[in-house]
Amino acid sequence: MTFDELDLSDDILDALDAMHFSECTPIQEQAIPAILEGRDLIAVAQTGTGKTAAFLLPVIDRLASQPEADAINCVVMSPTRELAQQIDRQMEGFSYFLPVSSVAIYGGTDGATFAQQQRGLKMGADVVIATPGRLLAHMSMGYVDLSHVQVLILDEADRMLDMGFYDDIMQIVAATPASRQTLMFSATMPPKIKQMAQKILNDPAEVKIAVSRPADSIDQSVAVCYERRKTAVLRHLFETKSSKRVIVFAASKLNVKDLNRELRRAGYKSAEMHSDLEQARRDEVMHDFRNGRIDILVATDILARGIDIDDIALVVNYDVPREAEDYVHRIGRTARAGTEGSAVTLVSERDHSRFAAIEAFLGKPVRREELPAGIGRTPDATPREAAEGGDRRRRGNSRKRSGRNNHKKADSAPRTAAAEPQAAAPEGAAQAAASAAAPKKRRHRGGRRHRGGKKGDAPAAPAKE
Question: Which of 67, 238, 345, 435 has its CA 20 to 30 A from that of 448?
Fold first, then answer.
C-alpha cells in the first residue's frame, strides 16, 4: 500500500514525498487507518518497522485540522533521551508543511535547554515528546497543563516498564482527560503490558506484526570459542573484517567496562555506552562515534533499540543475547538504509543451548567462522550439535539414575522377605542388636565430662581372659 491510498492531508503527503517515502510498512498500513478513526490502539512491533511514522502521521493530520490553541494536544512518552530526540527529528520532517509545533523533554541538559523546555510547556506546544521522569519533574513545578491532551502515546512501553517507569506513567495518565485517544506501542507483550493496557486503553484495536527475521544484507556468522579466548577472537575479527564503525554488545555493564578497558590498553579507539554514564557523557560518546573520533563502541542493550546510525560495518555479540528478539535488534544496527554489514556472535562452551534457540528462531544454522590456529583450541561441535549432545547426556543420566533405583529395590526386596521367617532371637541378643542399630548420641564439645573420668585419662583396656 502507498501513502497516497491513506486518508492523509496533502501537506503530509508532500512532506513524505520530499523525504522519499512512498510505500507503507505493514505496521503503518494496519495502524494508521485505526488511529485516523479515533480508536485506541495497542500495537506489537519491533524497532525498525516504521512505527514512529505509524503514530506521528495520523496525529499530525488530526492536530492540523482540529487544533487546540496554546495547549498541549499530544504527549508522546519514550524510555530514553536518545529515542525522544529521534522522534522529535522525525516530527520536524513530517510536519514541515504544517503549523504543528513540538518540543522534546528529557534530562541531562544545561540551563539554557531546560529553560527552552520550560517555555515550550508553558506556551503549549502541540506535541510534547518526553521521558516520563523529566516530564514529571516539570509537572511538579506547577506550569504543565495536560487537561487538553487529545492523544497520549506510549512508545516502547515494555522497555519503559523494564526501566521502572510504571508509577511515573500512571501519574501522567491521571493528569490527562479520560476522553483522550491512547496509543500503545511495544516490541513485546508480557503480562505487565497487558495489565497496563487494560487500565488505560478503551476497547483498543490490536495490531501485531510478527518479529521479522534479520535483513538478508546482514552477513551473519558465529565464532565458537572458549570463554577465555573471546578477546583474542574479537581482535581477529577487527583484523579480518573491520575495526571501524563497530558496535560490540556485552551482557552487563561490568562486562562492557572491562572489555572497553582492555581494548583501549591494546590501542583501539573505543568507548563504552551503558546506563551508568551521565547523560552529557553519553551524548559526547555518540557524537564522537558518529564523527569518527571513536571507532569501536562497546555497549549494553541500551544501543540495541532506538539508536539511528546508518553506517555500522560490524556488530559483534560478545555475549549471546538472552532472547531471539534481542538478537534481531542487536544485529539490526548494521546493514541499514540499503547498505551491507556483518554480524558475528561469539559462542562459548556455556552458550550453546541459548544460541541453538536463536538458530531455531531463524530457521537455519548460522555460518561458522574459521578461526586461525593462533587463537588456540576451540570446541569442535556447532552450537546446535552441542545443545543436542547436552540433551542426550541429560536423558542418559536420567536413565542411569532410574536403573540404579530399580536395582536397589530389587536387591532389598529378597532380603526383607528372607528375614521375615527367622525365629525370634534370644532376649539378650535382641537387646544387643537394638543397641548396635541405634544411632549414637553426639557429645557436644563443650559438654560435661563423665564424673568418673579425669582429663587425660585413657579408656580402660579390655580384660584378658
Answer: 435
DSSP 8-state class, residue 216 = T
For the chain, how are helix, strand and coil distributed in percent, rounded to 5?
45, 15, 40
Residue 103: the pLDDT is 96
Kindly state the cell numbers that stand for 86: 529521534
The domain locations on the chain are: 3-208, 218-386
Q: Is there a contact between 250 and 269 (Cβ–Cβ < 8 Å)?
A: no
Q: Is the pLDDT of residue 57 over 90?
A: yes
Q: Can you tell me the distance from the alpha carbon of 317 to that of 342, in angstroms, rounded to the nearest whole number?
A: 11
- Considering the segment(s) 3-208 as one domain, its CATH architecture is 3-Layer(aba) Sandwich (3.40)
Q: Dig out the grid coordinates for 438 from the structure.
A: 541405634
- Topology, domain 218-386: Rossmann fold (3.40.50)
CA distance 103 to 85: 10
b vs e for 366-390, b when ≥16 Cβ sit within 10 Å of the residue's Cβ? beebebeeeeeebeeebbbebbeee
Tally of CB atoms within 10 A around 279 = 14
Residue type (1 letter), 141: M
At 443, list the grid cell: 557429645
Instruction: Quote the CA–CA distance of 227 and 215 in Å, as a whole number.
Output: 29
CA 338, 344, 347: angle at the middle one, nearest 5?
Answer: 155
Q: Residue 287, exposed/middle/buried by CB under 10 A (0-12, 13-18, 19+)?
A: exposed
Q: Which residues contact 70 (CB under 8 A, 6 or more apart)?
A: 123, 124
Burial letters 72-89, b for 16+ CB under 10 A, else e: bbbbbbbbbbbbbbbbbe
The Cα–Cα gap between 94 and 97 comes to 8
What one-character DSSP code corresponds to residue 278?
-
Q: How far apart are CA 272 and CA 259, in angstroms?
A: 9
- pLDDT band of residue 323 (cuts 50, 70, 90) is confident
128-142 tens-digit pLDDT:
999 999 999 999 999
95-99, 258-262, 451-455: which is most confident: 258-262
User: Do the two domains 3-208 and 218-386 of this chain adopt the same fold?
Assistant: yes
Going by C-alpha positions, the residue among 187, 298, 311 that lies closest to residue 245 is 311
Using CB atoms within 10 Å of the CB of residue 246, give its burial: 0 to 12 exposed, 13 to 18 middle, 19+ buried: buried
Q: Which residues sit opposite 129 in a β-bridge? A: 76, 104
User: pLDDT tens, 392-410?
Assistant: 555 555 555 555 555 544 4
DSSP secondary structure letters along 326-339: HHHHHHTTSS-TT-
Handedness of CA 425, 429, 432, 433 (dihedral sign): negative
Look at 171 and 405; give whichever has higher pLDDT. Answer: 171
C-alpha radius of gyration, the chain, whole number: 33
